[in-house]
Amino acid sequence: MKLFITPNSPYARKVRVVLTEKRIDCELVEVVLSAPDCPVNEFNPLGKVPTLVLDDGTALYDSSVINDYLDKKTPVAHLIPQAKRIEVKRWEALADGVCDAAVAIMLEGRREAQDASVIERQQLKVDRGLAQLSKDLGESKFCVGNALSLADIALCCTLAYVGMRLPQTDWRNSYPNLASLFDQVTQRPSFTGSLPPGYSA
Ligand SMILES: N[C@@H](CCC(=O)N[C@@H](CS)C(=O)NCC(=O)O)C(=O)O
Question: Are residues 63 and 116 in the same domain?
Fold first, then answer.
């Protein structure tokens, strides 16, 4: 199997963390998405990372589908427990949605003529999303049940990305419960081994 990634992609990181937690061997192929001959386009018409290519050539995307596939592949570390499946996937959807909004702000910020209303609308999604994630976590040590699940992984990949791209969003001080979960989960080798270059969490 090979996984197309970019080093900063929070969605690709989510899959890389799952690969490590589940001890699944996979070749990581780093790509430049803007390159005209980017190999991802051959496997994924959307030209996005992560894209997983199985040994028989089947391509899987997006990160949520890939992680579903990986979780069923080995019995090691069940990250989407059947009984809590919808709960876990809902956490993932909200965490990914916050990431989508953060990506949109980053892309708008790179444009020469920026539209402040686009940034404002996406920032509201980030702010409301983080508030809901914090509320849903409450005093719990993990997002769902008493063990690490894909929900914690998705949440921490998003928090790391928001910290990297939107330093003005001070989620750490606003939501100490998210910070405490983040500090605990990101010590795992799956997170320390998938850090974006130049970052420590
Ligand atoms: N919903 C997708 C999002 C993937 C995504 O947007 N990846 C970005 C990199 S962070 C990408 O490939 N962007 C290139 C593009 O949109 O053309 C997932 O969860 O995998």
Answer: no
Determine the structural domain holding residue 133 and report its residue range. Answer: 82-189
Q: Distance, CA 46 to ligand 1 centroid (Å)?
A: 8
What is the tally of structural domains in the chain? 2
What contacts 24+ positions apart, CB below 8 Å, involve 166-170? 166/102, 166/105, 166/106, 166/123, 166/126, 169/123, 169/126, 169/127, 169/130
pLDDT in tens, 53-66: 999 999 999 999 99
- pLDDT tens digits for range 26-42: 999 999 999 999 999 99
Write the residue with the smallest CA distance to atom 6 of ligand 1: 48
